[in-house]
Design brief:
Layout (H helix, E strand, L loop, with lengths): L8 H7 L4 E4 L8 H7 L7 E3 L3 E2 L8 H8 L7 E6 L3 H11 L6 E6 L4 H4 L11 H14 L4 E6 L8 H9 L5 E5 L13 H10 L4 E4 L5 H11 L3 E4 L1 H5 L3 H9 L9 H15 L6 H15 L8 H8 L3 H12 L29
Parallel strand pairs: 1-2, 1-9, 2-4, 3-4, 4-5, 5-6, 6-7, 7-8, 8-9
Helix pairs in contact: 2-12, 4-6, 6-7, 9-11, 12-15
Length: about 350
């Protein structure tokens, strides 16, 4: 649904009969160039910005703000904030409301240690009373839809039963639940039963997040949780066709299956989109390795492709290796061949972290 009025876009999407498909916020990944590229492959119904870091001295990050003001997707945008200072969060939310955003979102799920140690992101789940106060202040201040992205606890999911009534009483317009604790990062299996509990308990729609890696896992997660939609992050890096494929599956249409050469063309387009030509070549290649961590999961099962990519330092060698594995017309499978690659990553490596 392109061209929706930002003020009513979220509710319009939620009134449709199809699951809401959301592109997850990933720091240093889901920026303006990546969004623009992803729309070539079908794109999500809704995009969420990288998080705006909010504190007493903060100003809206101009690079992240550009993904709102220059939004190239034609799809609605949710502006995500992260912080713990109530006056600062209220100020930032009111500033963001002046831009064409479909909702203001509060991040209660980021698992990066440097974030949670400052009692922001997922770190706030250790302090339910503070979360209650923040949500109350933001709900009073925000005049457009207000949403939250959370995990099921900090180190113990039992706190989720305490958090759900807090979320419920603040008239959220949407709750996105990543079915792991903060301390589990991306290592464990996703606890979908907790997302199902949120669906049952919340008066607002709930979106499921965590390990939605293919058309078939998307259908399984929807069936397991009863969620109103799905938030997809890493799988959209590996397979930018995933949103289109999910829609095709639900319409009983043939599911598009790209060839190796089409994936190679995607990698080439990704390089051109996200690598600054003013930056030295070795840094460009290093940046691309972050994306290839996920793309390689769909290419071959041994890990040799990823191993070879990790060792290159020039653009020529990077594309030579990609060509060796992808310059063919055989189809690339929908399901990742090596899920282990994407499990257990987080801060401190080249992997994107969802906001």
């Amino acid at each position: 649904m392109e061209g929706l009025n930002p003020n009513t876009a979220l509710h319009t999407l939620l009134q449709s009969g199809d699951p809401l498909l959301v592109l997850a916020p990933m720091q240093d990944v889901t920026d303006l160039p990546f969004w623009q590229l992803l729309t070539r492959y079908g794109g999500a119904d809704l995009c969420v910005t990288e998080y705006f870091r909010v504190h007493p001295d903060s100003r809206l990050d101009p690079g992240i703000l550009a993904s709102i003001t220059k939004n190239p997707t034609g799809r609605p945008v949710v502006a995500q904030m992260m912080g713990n200072d109530i006056p600062s969060l209220v100020r930032a939310a009111r500033e963001l409301e002046q831009h064409p955003v479909a909702a203001i979102d509060l991040n209660l799920g980021c698992p990066v240690p440097v974030v949670y140690r400052k009692c922001a992101g997922g770190g706030l789940l250790r302090d339910p009373e503070r979360v209650d106060a923040i949500l109350g202040a933001l709900r009073e201040a925000v005049t457009i839809p207000f949403t939250v992205k959370t995990r099921i606890g900090f180190d113990d999911p039992s706190v989720f039963e305490q958090m759900l009534p807090i979320y419920a009483r603040h008239s959220l317009d949407l709750l996105t639940v990543h079915g792991r604790t903060v301390k589990e990062m991306y290592r464990s299996e996703v606890h979908y039963e907790y997302i199902a509990r949120a669906v049952a308990a919340m008066p607002c729609p709930v979106v499921a997040n965590g390990n939605v890696s293919s058309v078939h896992s998307a259908e399984e997660v929807l069936n397991l949780t009863g969620a109103r939609g799905l938030m997809i992050g890493r799988a959209a890096i590996r397979n930018p066709w995933i949103f289109q494929q999910i829609r095709q599956h639900r319409r009983d249409e043939p599911i598009y299956q790209p060839t190796g050469r089409e994936v190679l063309e995607y990698i080439q387009a990704l390089y051109e989109a996200v690598c600054d030509p003013e930056v030295r070549e070795t840094s460009q290649v290093q940046k691309m390795k972050k994306y290839l961590t996920y793309i390689s999961d769909g290419v071959e099962p041994t890990g040799q492709f990823q191993h070879s990519i990790r060792r290159v330092i020039t653009r020529a060698d990077f594309f030579r290796i990609c060509g060796e594995y992808l310059d063919h017309d055989s189809p690339i499978p929908h399901v990742p061949l090596r899920m282990a690659t994407a499990v257990g990553v987080g801060a401190g490596d080249n992997s994107p972290v969802e906001g």
